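@channel anyone free to eyeball this complex?
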Amino acid sequence: QSVLTQPPSVSGAPGQRVTISCTGSSSNIGARFDVHWYQQLPGTAPKLLIYSNTNRPSGVPDRFSGSKSGTSASLAITGLQAEDEADYYCQSYDSSLSGVVFGGGTNLTVL
Amino acid sequence: QVQLQESGPGLVKPSQTLSLTCTVSGGSISSGNYYWSWIRQHPGKGLEWIGYIYYRGSTYYNPSLKSRVTISVDTSKNQFSLKLSSVTAADTAVYYCARVARGFDPWGQGTLVTVSS
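replying in thread with the prediction:
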């Protein structure tokens, strides 16, 4: 069981908007540690999608956005495209565990 | 553009030590601005942080693996390495190396290590 909780799966039709939640606690997200998001396309290594809660690395489309509030964070994807089908992971740091923690991952299906 | 590449045996026997190396190209591991990390992914599962190292040698490990993990750095070769001792089938996974700044970026392509006799 992951320290950061994500829904196992989400889905949406092309063009729609979906959000993926990442719920933590007072020892990680709530302790103001940054949240980062990764996209893992099938058979490939994860790729940084959002860093430090809300920032997009160069080359990441602005259809992807991140937010954080309290002990939770969210990834939003607008204008869904077939190529967005992937697993998405959130990541932070946990002071109680003294280490990096990941969410369990969310599989996005584009209908 | 920095690139990372994992290398090492794809098959390790139970109770032995898993050894992997990550070669960094396109930038110096001694730049001072980054940590360098190992992460693994069990087949069909999520990501698990193993640990990371600074070029000067300071290390931080996942408490659940700490007793079995050693991460080291060789600045002359622009490489860092992972050793995981007393492996079992539960250590079968794809092992990734990654640079650490604000998040893990970039990642190596990953290497599958199977623990089996």
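from a first look: The first strand of chain A starts at residue 9 and ends at 12.
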